[in-house]
């Protein structure tokens, strides 16, 4: 619950009730090609951190946080219009589902039934298919300190079985944490893997590339891929590879070294197997931008995180590697990889996942 406190304001001596809860503002963002009205909700906390979320794709359009001198900067790559999001193929800031990252050969078998999915990335199905959760309208409801978004994905949508009822709650608190609570239920056995695809540039959108950002990932292993970027099934130690981010490393330090895995991703585009103590919230990754002093920490309940260095951003209005993604997730292609943690959801079960993006200016 929001905690209210009494304050005296300036020389007028006006006494009022302010709240430490995030405020919420709603404004029209535009219309989809089908004529649906898209709203933009802006949450602001008492520190002035501000996140704007569109009901199209549940998209984080902007996220303003202070640098070490208190100067605000938008650290998420965003677009100005609904139309530009409809045409965008980089999943900028969007919610991703039903299945984050790739499902190999656009198919999987569940309970002996083969499900064929639309292939939108070579032979693979990427991020739920051509009309994934990033390209649908979400129903919004204001909740304390946040925004609840719901979407009912019909049985058979993009090839997936079961009516999937999805809820994502974004909340912003005064500790500068943007929290995402994902939940889902189904009426038939299905698979689900939900995430958010924000591209961060902690120097600020438009302020160059992310190669000088210093990253740590709490992972001793990662999932190497084949030439089609599908995991081979191996959990490979990061030790002695350019994927070792167990100590802080500049992203650009090793991105151009001769390495088959880096070549396959055109840079970093890999799932890391998080070192976990249990099933609760744990720190997964930390990014420091030395010039601005901005720091992002990612905490999650998920077993994996996709570190994507924005290698294909040049296909958008943004330059290559001008943003980075840290997508908390189950491992890519899990429906075809029996040794990976399961992504199966059955009727009567509730899928739950939580991720926090926490911001702080560095000391
Ligand atoms: C994938 C990349 C893909 C990108 C699309 C990332 O999550 O891992 O391979 O190109 O999304 O923008």
Brief digest:
The chain has 363 residues and is mainly beta. It contains two helices and 29 strands.
Q: What can you tell me about this protein's structure?
A:
This protein is mainly β. The chain is 3% helix and 42% strand. It is built from two helices and 29 strands. It has helices at residues 82-87, 260-265, and strands spanning 4-9, 14-19, 23-31, 37-44, 50-54, 59-66, 72-74, 95-96, 102-103, 107-110, 113-116, 125-126, 139-143, 146-153, 164-172, 177-186, 190-191, 195-196, 214-217, 219-223, 236-237, 249-250, 269-274, 282-288, 294-300, 304-308, 325-329, 344-345, 351-361. The strands form eight sheets. It has a nine-stranded antiparallel β-sheet, with no helix packed on it. The protein has a five-stranded antiparallel β-sheet with strand order 3-4-5-6-7, with no helix packed on it. A hairpin with a 4-residue loop joins strand 15 (164-172) and strand 16. The radius of gyration is 20 Å and the shape is globular. Residues 1-19 have low confidence and may be disordered. Beta-D-glucopyranose (BGC) binds next to strand 26 and strand 27.
């Amino acid at each position: 619950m929001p905690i209210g406190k009494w304050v005296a304001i300036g020389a007028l001596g006006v006494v009022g009730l302010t709240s430490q809860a995030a405020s919420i503002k709603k404004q029209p963002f535009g219309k989809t090609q089908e004529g649906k009205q898209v709203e933009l909700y802006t949450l602001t906390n008492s520190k002035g951190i501000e996140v704007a979320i569109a009901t199209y794709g549940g998209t984080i359009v902007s996220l303003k946080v202070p640098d070490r001198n208190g100067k605000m900067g938008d650290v998420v790559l965003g677009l100005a219009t609904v139309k530009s999001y409809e045409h965008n193929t980089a999943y900028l800031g969007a919610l991703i589902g039903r299945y984050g990252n790739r499902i190999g050969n656009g198919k999987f078998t569940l309970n002996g039934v083969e499900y064929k999915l639309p292939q939108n990335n070579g032979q693979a199905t990427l991020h739920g298919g051509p009309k994934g959760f990033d390209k649908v309208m979400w129903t919004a409801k204001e909740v304390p300190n946040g925004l609840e978004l719901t979407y009912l994905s019909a049985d058979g949508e993009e090839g997936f079985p079961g009516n999937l009822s999805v809820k994502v709650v974004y909340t912003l608190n005064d500790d500068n944490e943007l929290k995402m609570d994902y939940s889902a239920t189904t009426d038939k056995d299905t698979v689900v893997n939900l995430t958010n695809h924000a591209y961060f540039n902690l120097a600020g959108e438009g302020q160059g590339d992310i190669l000088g950002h210093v990253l740590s990932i709490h992972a001793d292993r990662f999932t190497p891929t084949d030439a089609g970027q599908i995991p081979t099934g191996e959990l490979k130690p990061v030790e002695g590879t350019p994927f070792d981010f167990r100590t802080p490393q500049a992203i650009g330090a090793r991105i151009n070294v001769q390495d088959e895995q880096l070549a396959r991703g055109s840079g970093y585009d890999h799932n890391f197997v998080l070192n976990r103590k249990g099933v609760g919230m744990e720190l997964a990754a930390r990014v420091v931008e030395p010039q601005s002093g901005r720091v992002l920490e990612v905490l999650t309940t998920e077993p994996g995180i996709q570190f994507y260095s924005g290698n294909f951003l040049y296909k958008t209005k943004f330059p290559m590697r001008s943003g980075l993604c840290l997508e908390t997730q189950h491992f890519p292609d899990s429906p075809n990889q029996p040794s990976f943690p399961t992504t199966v959801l059955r009727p009567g079960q509730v899928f739950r996942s939580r991720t926090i993006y926490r911001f702080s200016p560095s000391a």
